[in-house]
Amino acid sequence: MFEQEIRIKGQKARKASRLLAGVSASLKDSALLLMADSLVRETEKIIEANGIDVQRGIDKGLSKALVDRLLLNPQRIQDMAQGLKEVAALPDPVGEVDSMWQRPNGIQIGKIRVPMGVIGIIYEARPNVTVDAAGLCLKSGNAVLLRGSSEAINSNKIISKIIADAAFKAGLPRDIIQLVESTDREAVNVMLKANGIIDVLIPRGGAGLIRAVVENATVPVIETGVGNCHVYVDELADLKMAEDIVINSKCHRPGVCNAMETLLIHSSLADSFLPVVLDRLKGLGVELRGDERVKKYVGWVKDATEEDWYTEYLDMILAVKLVDSMDEAIEHIYTYGTKHSESIVTKDYSRAMRFLKEIDSSAVYVNASTRFTDGHQFGFGAEIGISTQKLHARGPMGLKELTTYKYIIYGNGQIRS
Amino acid sequence: MFEQEIRIKGQKARKASRLLAGVSASLKDSALLLMADSLVRETEKIIEANGIDVQRGIDKGLSKALVDRLLLNPQRIQDMAQGLKEVAALPDPVGEVDSMWQRPNGIQIGKIRVPMGVIGIIYEARPNVTVDAAGLCLKSGNAVLLRGSSEAINSNKIISKIIADAAFKAGLPRDIIQLVESTDREAVNVMLKANGIIDVLIPRGGAGLIRAVVENATVPVIETGVGNCHVYVDELADLKMAEDIVINSKCHRPGVCNAMETLLIHSSLADSFLPVVLDRLKGLGVELRGDERVKKYVGWVKDATEEDWYTEYLDMILAVKLVDSMDEAIEHIYTYGTKHSESIVTKDYSRAMRFLKEIDSSAVYVNASTRFTDGHQFGFGAEIGISTQKLHARGPMGLKELTTYKYIIYGNGQIRS
User: Fold this and answer.
1) DSSP H or E segment with residue B231
2) Do B53 and B198 belong together in one domain?
3) DSSP assigned state of A264
4) pLDDT for A125
5) Which residues pair with residue B179 across a beta bridge?
């Protein structure tokens, strides 16, 4: 049954995507604005449907945090609508010719940005992803096949209906936004193998979901997610700056992927900077786990095990290690990191340059907080996720990363000899 | 055993790739030139090893075509060496900063091109792929894990040893070129799941190999290959030009992926252009398969079945269909095509523009042969394959497509508020 649902909705999305690819930016933008208005106008209906999901979540014993993720209120609906308006205001990446050149035989070759076609999004509890993902896919000219979690099914159904109706009313093809309503887990597996229907899959959620998608999909996947981020405080750091960057990278929002998880400090700072910054972190409620050398200088920290260096806590916990050189810091990051975001704090020019060159992460910082790895902070205006793979897109992905290109060739009778 | 081989060689390649990423273009280029010289100098040794493969191929009853693919002679070795020299002469894509911008808080963000890391190449009979792939990966700063077919194992062993030794002698890390010597088919499966060791896999070979890789890999894959290419001769075509383009697209080299497989002709040309061009194709030895309408005008063509519209013949066979409109041509291409290369022949401006816009293929032509879809013809100087997927790279892939990017961020103490 779900197989049929995905095949039918996928084909509808496919057909609609061909029309959508040729639609003007102004039509797409007016559709996004109408979608935003409709969401706000239908606030009551959305809250009613969401109430069913929330009650079922409570009855099922979902954690308070998960129930909160599920919950919609007028403010959150306003925020979703606001997000659509911001996407409408962004430039359209489709149709941009990145470059054009002429070959000796006279053919002219242009590289033009075009939509992917149909994007599949597989996500977890938050119903706002339904709106975010649909808006970004629409603006980049893609039809979308959405598969949220069963916990949010009633919210997702009403939200996707409201925005799809609004897009249609604005003049876009009927079927560009499709919600998979089957809550059977097998439905996800059908999406993973839907080559020829779905052009690219983007999983958004916890490590388990992402692993399952990467391991089982035959459709190309953009892996998002895990960030075991590091800050390295160099011997030659501005210590006041280092303190601020460490605190910000850890405490500003510890539950997200660009938060620092391990702090590396040059051993020459072991009896000056180390105790000061750890005290301050402790005062802010951070649990600290250090290796033996750290414990020698700051007795009260907990023991860090090998496991800690690998862990993305997503919590007010921090692993701390003393290193004797920048080489050791780079080796540690290479061995335990996830190639997401790393920062060095230093006043030394050549060390800064070396860190930028040798660290193989999606975002490498000098003297700034790791928390900036984010589509909005980078100036992309929007973000569909942060890629942790090297193929296609790396780091924050905005509208452009939801497109591909094709070559257009202008000839006047050229043949190959 | 092969599991261990791949893990050990993969880790060696991984380690070497970190050093290679920072190597200057001039050192990489001198290594490529030394590799070229060494191949020529060791011609005798290569031919001797290749002789064993060829004899075994003959004994096993390989087809004449396959034995020819396997065969190396002094000219072919010269050609491989020449290929390396051409790669050395190309610009290095690594280190190029595509763009750099400043955010309101003063951080400066740059997008810099970097190597992928370790590229896995899985390929079939031709031993020249060993040299081609290793050269392109080296120039783009990547270590490579090569897995050729068992038929060419002796040739591949000696060739990879010669070029790896030469690269080392030139001053590059020892382990950047690794050949998987295990001929067990299971070794390929280990590569497909080697996440964390291999960054991207590129299969090069027949449809069966590519399907097996796409369906079973958890490492990101770039799919290459199948080209069911079309030429559409519009009502308003220059008929002399159309004839040349049709002949060239079909006959210039029918065994490759950018050759035309189906010819679509506007029905208004049914009793003028159609019989003329089919006669000429027949005279050149092309077997023609037409639908019922074509047979009405040219009685001697064979029947085309539904199957024919889907088929990539890679041979002197062509399917022919009459269509009543450009819409019908576009629909046909959409339904049966593989999104590789399609060409329209027309004198009409708006039809040319519409074809360029609506055809969703990696290369879309106006008034030129489909045979130009090729890295060299596009001016990339080299080609690792032609991507038929939309993620990462589309169409001919040169050196740039073997790289990825990272963001480098220059701050002076910025934190997120």
Assistant:
1) strand B229-233
2) yes
3) E
4) 74
5) B146
Q: Where do we find the tokens 């088929």?
A: B311
Which residue range is the domain that position A122 belongs to? 2-223+395-410
Cβ pair B261, B326 in contact under 8 A: no
- The pTM (predicted TM-score) of the whole model is 0.93
Whether A87 is in a domain gets the answer: yes
Q: What is the DSSP letter of A198?
A: -
- Are A367 and B412 a contacting pair at CB < 8 A? yes
- Euclidean distance between CA atoms B93 and B88, whole angstroms: 12
Q: Could you tell me if B73 and B219 lie in one domain?
A: yes
Q: How far is A215 from chain B (nearest CA, A)?
A: 5
A294-332 pLDDT, tens digit per residue, is 999 999 999 999 999 999 999 999 999 999 999 999 999
A69-90 per-position pLDDT tens digit: 899 999 999 999 999 999 999 9
Residue pair A395/A386 in contact by the 8 Å Cβ criterion? yes
Q: Are residues B346 and B261 in the same domain?
A: yes
Q: B265: part of which helix (H) or strand (E)?
A: strand B260-266
Tell me how far apart the alpha carbons of residues A3 and A186 are, in angstroms, rounded to a whole number: 9
Same domain, B51 and B91: yes
Whether B193 and B67 share a structural domain:
yes
CATH code of B363's domain: 3.40.309.10
At B205, list the tokens. 């070979």
Asked whether residue A77 is domain-assigned, the answer is yes
Give the number of domains in chain B: 2
| Residues in CB range of B219: below 8 A, 6 or more apart | B120, B191, B192, B193, B194, B195, B198, B199, B200, B201
CA dihedral A268, A238, B19, A312 (to 10 degrees): 90
Q: Which of B214, B351, B414 to mutate to test the interface with A (most CBs of A within 10 A)?
A: B414
Q: What is the DSSP letter of B108?
A: E
Q: Is the pLDDT of residue A22 over 80?
A: yes
- Is residue A380 in some structural domain? no
Structure tokens at A237: 């750091």
| Contact at CB, B195 and A214, closer than 8 angstroms | yes
d(CA B356, CA B364): 6
- Give the tens place of pLDDT for each residue, B166-196: 999 999 999 999 999 998 888 999 999 999 8
ipTM of the complex, rounded to two decimals: 0.94
Q: Which of B22, B372, B390 sits opposite A416 (nearest CB)?
A: B372
> Mean pLDDT of all residues in chain A?
96
What pLDDT score was predicted for residue A2? 82
pLDDT digits (tens, 9 = 90+) for A254-275: 999 999 999 999 999 999 999 9
Residues linked to residue B302 through DSSP beta bridges, in sequence order? B289
pLDDT band at residue B42 under the 50/70/90 scheme: very high
Question: Same structural domain for residues A322 and A300?
Answer: yes
Nearest residue in chain A measured CA to CA from B98: A98
Assign A208 a pLDDT band (cuts: 50, 70, 90). confident
For residue A108, count other CB atoms closer than 10 A to its CB.
15
CA distances from B416 to A244, A341, A372, A373 (A): 10, 15, 7, 10
**Are B53 and B135 found together in one domain?**
yes
**CATH number where A54 lies:** 3.40.605.10
Task: Tell me: pLDDT of B340 over 90.
Answer: yes
Rounded to the nearest integer, the mean pLDDT of chain B is 95
Nearest C-alpha of chain B: how many angstroms from A25? 15
Chain A residues lying within 8 Å of B244, measured CB to CB: 413, 415
Contact residues on chain B for A245, CB-CB shorter than 8 A:
413, 415
From chain B, the residues in CB contact with A394 under 8 A are 404-407
Q: A96 lies in a domain?
A: yes
- Environment class of B348 (CB within 10 Å of its CB; exposed 0-12, middle 13-18, buried 19+): middle
Residue B320 sits in the same domain as residue B264: yes
Q: What is the arithmetic mean of pLDDT over B217-230?
A: 92
Please tell me which of the candidates B220, B248, B362 has its beta carbon nearest to residue A407. Answer: B362
Query: Which strands make up the sheet holding B200-204, listed edge to edge?
Result: B177-179, B143-147, B118-123, B200-204
